[in-house]
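Fold this: Lysostaphin resistance A-like protein
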Amino acid sequence: MSVIASIFVVPITEELFFRNYILRGLLQNYKPIIAIILSSLMFAFIHIPFISLFYEFLDFSLHQTYITIFGGLLSGILFYKSKSIVPSIIFHIFWNLTSYVFK
């Protein structure tokens, strides 16, 4: 996947799905903190390289999962507090950009 897509396209689509669709739906049935935590866990779940769990030679670290949960929590809070998807998209773009710059 190209760097440009990873920095711009992926954050937009992930935020539209996880915050605008999943989190918005969860907020209709759960308290905000529970909805944000659930959507963050779902977000982290799709970022786990599952194949790595079965093969020792592939690199898998729970550190990346913790970082993704933290990013999901921040995006969820931004979405909830602002009542807009735009702040979480901007945050996610800068998060991905930073991860490429400091790789």
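The mean pLDDT is 90. The longest helix spans residues 3-27.
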